[in-house]
Amino acid sequence: MTNHDKSSWNQNISRPTAPVTNDGPDTPSRRRVLAGIGAVAAASAAPGGVFAQGNSNDTDVLIIGGGIAGASTAFHLAEQGRDVILLERGEIASEASGQNMGGLGGNGWGNNPDLLSYLTAGGVEIFKRMQIELGYDMEFRLSGTLTAIHTDEQFEYFQDRVSSLRAQGYDLELLTPREARAIEPEANGELLGYQYATQRGQADPVKSTRAFAHAAQVAGATINTGQNVTAITALSAGGYAVRTGSGEYRCQTLVLATGAWCGPVGEMLGIKVPIVPIRGQMWATEAQPPRVFNTIGSAESSFAWSKDNGADASHPPNLTHKNRQRFIRHLYGRQRKNGEIIFGGDRESLGYVTEPDRAGIEVNRGHAAEVIPLVASLPISRVWSGLMPFSLDGAPIIGKISLRENLFIVSGLASSGFGRGPMAGKLAADYIHTGHMTHVLSESNPDRCVTEA
Ligand SMILES: Cc1cc2nc3c(=O)[nH]c(=O)nc-3n(C[C@H](O)[C@H](O)[C@H](O)COP(=O)(O)OP(=O)(O)OC[C@H]3O[C@@H](n4cnc5c(N)ncnc54)[C@H](O)[C@@H]3O)c2cc1C
């Protein structure tokens, strides 16, 4: 990670006021703790010290990865009474889940919900539950998203798209610039129009991811940070031994939630997981008074990708660059609760390189200024970047890897995993807990692409 002002991610996070116990599944005291999540959550989402070592290194389910996918999986499993240990090599939310823009995508459930509807609309429901019912401050708002339309061709494409999606029961509409400026006064009134997706939202990435990890711990899971997994051995009696820099863990069921590092972690098991790291980068202005209310995007990229998504044997679809050459601009942004206006959009395949590229940031800033002109006059106060887990075919990889016993994966959430991670984790947890795959997960079946190394 490169974050030129890391401290700002850690603000306003206080420690829980109540002790967190770690009783086994279904014990009366554990149930009392579950009932008390709301009270603890109000003062929670604490990093570092709260995630202390557990008592035992043996568990029913072991999850590797403390991003939003792993934290949500841990929460939903622990809530169902499963014995869970989560291992994270850094801190909770120290990679993509803490570095993203904080946009929650989707267009509602639609008439015939598919995996995308579950991951997006279902994800929003989980955010509502965490913040409104369980009391976590995640800075969640169902703000809506405005996507700027710059050209006649984009307008025609979006007109067809909106009418087709509306016919399928999704919630979105086309606005004139005048209508858009009524809800987003700083939006450029000279453009051709805006798509308005009413069911989209935003939340703080770090606070949200830590909230899932904290809720998992309150529900009985052990969250161990600073545990870099270096080796995994399948045990002859069933289950796995998982080695970290400081010890060995044993489990019956293993879950890979290692985001852009699913490839190297998969290699420890002798399997090839076709997920590549894609660098995303962002920039922020100094804190401003409230000026931007929706999340903001541009039609340029989705229109271009609808003609040619650029995928080939080594590049996933929908990138902005190929072989270090930009072929399209992509844009997303919002104003954070702390007042910073943040934007990003580039998606580049560079291996595990995370240094931000200033030239790309300037292109993105120019794009943002075409939609929200006020940002042209605001200096950039910090930039950062992170690695997104793109599967080579562009679809999520969530489910059971049948090449090995009791092995699951929750990943491939690409550029949308902050919004989709919570429900991806819940669907994976339900699969692990019941042993049955819900039908929507057939779209993300790992067996379509995970092979022997
Ligand atoms: C700049 C940027 C902007 C984005 N904007 C948005 C957005 O607006 N909306 C949206 O929905 N999504 C967005 N995304 C995408 C989103 O952040 C990711 O899809 C999502 O966070 C992936 O979550 P994850 O839990 O799968 O991976 P991660 O958050 O990367 O978590 C994986 C974890 O596994 C750990 N790990 C890896 N290897 C090991 C090991 N050997 N041992 C122990 N731990 C290990 C890592 O340390 C890491 O913490 C953005 C991403 C970036 C980079």
Quick synopsis:
This protein is of the alpha+beta class.
Structural summary, described in words:
With 453 residues, this protein is an alpha+beta fold. It has two domains: 2-100 and 205-274 and 394-452, FAD/NAD(P)-binding domain; 145-198 and 276-391, D-Amino Acid Oxidase, subunit A, domain 2 (D-Amino Acid Oxidase, Chain A, domain 2, 2-Layer Sandwich). 29% of the residues lie in helices and 24% in strands. The protein is built from twelve helices and 23 strands. The strands form five sheets. Strands 1-20-14-19-18-15-5-7-6 form a nine-stranded mixed beta sheet, sandwiched between helices. Strands 2, 3, 9, 10, 11, 12, 21 and 22 form an eight-stranded mixed beta sheet that branches. Helix 3 packs parallel to helix 12 (417-434) and helix 5 crosses helix 12 (417-434). The longest helix is centred in the first third of the chain and has 19 residues, at 115-133. The chain is globular, with a radius of gyration of 21 Å. The structure holds flavin-adenine dinucleotide (FAD).
Residue fraction in strands:
15-25%
Give average pLDDT, whole number: 90
Here the CATH topology of the largest domain equals FAD/NAD(P)-binding domain
Question: From the coordinates shown, what is the CATH architecture of the largest domain?
Answer: 3-Layer(bba) Sandwich
Q: The biggest beta sheet, please?
A: 9 strands, mixed
Poorly predicted regions are 1-55
CATH superfamily of the largest domain: FAD/NAD(P)-binding domain
Number of helical elements: 12
So what's the CATH class of the largest domain? Alpha Beta
| Radius of gyration, taken over Cα atoms and rounded to an integer in Å | 21 Å
Morphology: globular
Strand segment count: 23
Structural class: alpha+beta
What is the end-to-end distance? 28 Å
Small molecules in complex: flavin-adenine dinucleotide
Within the largest sheet, what's the order of strands? 1-20-14-19-18-15-5-7-6
